[in-house]
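Reopening this one. Same input as before:
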Amino acid sequence: MRATYMYGPGDVRVIDVPDPTIRTPTDALVRVVRACVCGSDLHPYHSMPPTPQGSSMGHEFIGVVEDIGGDVHTVRKGDLVIAPFAWSDGTCDFCREGLQTSCRHGGFWNSGDVGGGQAEAVRVPLADGTLVPVPVEEDSPLIPSLLTLSDVYGTGYHAAVRARVDAGTTVTVIGDGAVGLLAVLSAEQLGAQRIILMGRHKDRTDLGQEFGATDIVAERGAEGIAKVHELTGDGTHVVIEAVGHMPAYQQAVGVVRPGGVISRVGVPQYENAPVGFDSLFGPNITLTGGPAPVRAYIDRLLPGVLDGSVDPGKVFDREIGLDAIADGYRDMDNRTALKVLVRP
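Same output, byte for byte:
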């Protein structure tokens, strides 16, 4: 089958690899119907050390179950399923607490002998705990929105939930990528009355306003911080940092209100973030966030997608075939695409 591998910075290729097979009784074999490129894929795209063997890519996909092991009972052959970006057993203490990204027996795509979602098929370990069947056909117009439940919608929602967003909180979202925009949508769903989106790309911030942003701040750094304070006085109760770079974190510290919460879901590309007296301790700021256990949120978010009351799939603004995925990476890196949908 064909699968996407990265060999170093900017070096993305589609190669032939062995077809995945059932290896354990808890496995399922899923034919990928749609995958996508994630903003976090751009981190290795910039900085991955060159490697001759390459690394498989992709952690967001939706597909059809082609085969199952003897101990799989919650999905059947022919089911259309959502695959969260972490696989998990659904039974350990962390899974029962809704933290599937810390599953004692789980893991992440593209690790060990488990491949990635930017491919024609994937072996899914622990299928019962991982996969979520949905009652739609693979040509349904809901497919893009269902795909967001594998990562970016659940991640944006996680950021808002961890920050305890409700009708009494004001929110700043830093980053106008797919996660940031869906954090705006999630904050609006949780009742926030004022949501400031910090982003510079008008097509994206326009979508952010459609999702519920009440104010747009295009400025960055000290100028952006000053603009948020001009709008709010003391800053906002919640800041969702959906970028992962140090300037975004510093901006978050600058716009959070005393007693507020910074919720980070952009994968940090730095160490030693300021957490001392002047940054977090003195003003009683809470720092939270982390890899979203999206499996915990799918059941909560799925009904709105199925009934059409929300359309998170609007974050996809380009669709390509798998053979063109290198172009998809390049377009997202150049900011000429917000999020690229991939059809194997």
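So the earlier flakiness isn't reproducible anymore. For the record, The chain has two domains: 2-151+293-343, 156-289.
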